[in-house]
Every structure is written in C-alpha cells, then in structure tokens.
Design goal:
Oligomer: single chain
CATH superfamily: Glycogen Phosphorylase B
Distance between the termini: 31 Å
Structural class: alpha/beta
Helix content: 40-55%
CATH topology: Rossmann fold
C-alpha cells in the first residue's frame, strides 16, 4: 500500500468509529450496527460513520432506524481516497466486521493513519491485529464486537500503543517493502 497517502493523525480525534467498504452482506454491517447499538448505550456521544455504497444500504438504513440510531449513524456514500484518509485521521476507531475476507488493504490504510482497529477473525485480519494495531474477535458476534470496541475506547494505553504501532506495521506492507521482498526472492532464485 501507499503509506504516504494515509499519513497518521494526532491523538486529538473525534469520538467516532469509521467503517469503509462496499455495502454487502460479506462485510457484516448488520452485525456492526447491532454491536454499535450495544456500545452506544454506554457511550451516547459516539458516532458511527460508514463510507461506501452497495446493495445492502436500504436494509442498513432500516436497521439503523429500528435500533434507534438514526442520529448517531451516518451513511457517507462513496468517498475518494483523500476523503477516506481524512476520515481516518479524525476518527477514534476503525471497525471491520466482515464474515469473509482475504487481506483487506483498508486495515493497513487505517493502521498507517494511526487509527486503531477492531476487526473480525477472518482471512488475515487477526494476523494484522496481533501485530499490535488493534483487536480481533469472532465474526458474526455483535456482543464480541461491542466488547472489543469498548475495550479500545476505554483503555487509553491500548489505544495509544495501537495508534503508535499502526504506521510501523503499515510501512512493513508498503510498496517499497513488498518490492524489496520480491527482489530478494528473485535474487536468491537466480543465484542458485
């Protein structure tokens, strides 16, 4: 990933959770909304911002109304890379609630921005979280997601260490670092 496009924000961030991605069932958005409703009971000043478009939008909006979150959840629609980077710098937490993933680049973008993550344990998400950038929990479990969000919001030391570690981890996955790995592999193969 291009780490320069996602510079870190500072510690003064707004009390909001950011989600970015296609509004599809694979992203677990309905679980995220239920989790946010539980989290929001104790933290009514927090907001959930969702950037993206897709076929699940109407169902998500209905779920938001059903949960009484109409004033606390914003559907931002499609955003440019620059706009997403700005949202990442001002948000306090990043949430990825997917039920299916590979290695989502959006988690690296959040990490590069110094934005601690809460993610579900699908694909390579846990591996990234365990590099010290956030927490990974069971997929399709709104209670576990809500608990992890509360842990990240309440534990200032955990938040700070995750925020600080994020840009370091993202740099390890930058285009430059990846090119070095590929170059070294080819050099070793050609020297045999």
């Amino acid at each position: 990933m291009d780490t320069a496009a996602f510079p870190p924000g500072n510690e003064e961030r707004q009390p909001k959770i950011l989600m970015v991605g296609s509004l599809r069932w694979q992203k677990g958005y309905l679980d995220a909304l239920e989790a946010f409703a539980k989290f929001h009971e104790n933290r009514p000043d927090w907001r959930l911002d969702i950037a993206g478009v897709g076929p699940l939008k109407e169902e998500m909006e209905a779920k938001t109304r059903e949960l009484g979150l109409k004033d606390s959840v914003r559907f931002l629609g499609m955003r440019s890379r620059e706009q997403v980077a700005a949202l990442m710098r001002e948000s306090r937490l990043f949430l990825l609630s997917s039920v299916s993933e590979g290695f989502p680049k959006v988690l690296l973008e959040a990490s590069a921005s110094g934005l601690p993550i809460v993610t579900t344990d699908v694909g390579s998400c846990r591996d990234l979280a365990e590099e010290g950038v956030g927490l990974a929990v069971e997929a399709s479990n709104p209670d576990a997601i809500a608990t992890a969000l509360e842990s990240m919001a309440a534990d200032e030391d955990l938040w700070r260490s995750s925020s600080k570690r994020g840009p370091e981890v993202a740099k390890e996955h930058s285009w430059e670092a990846t090119a070095d790995v590929v170059r070294d592999a080819y050099s070793k193969a050609l020297s045999r």
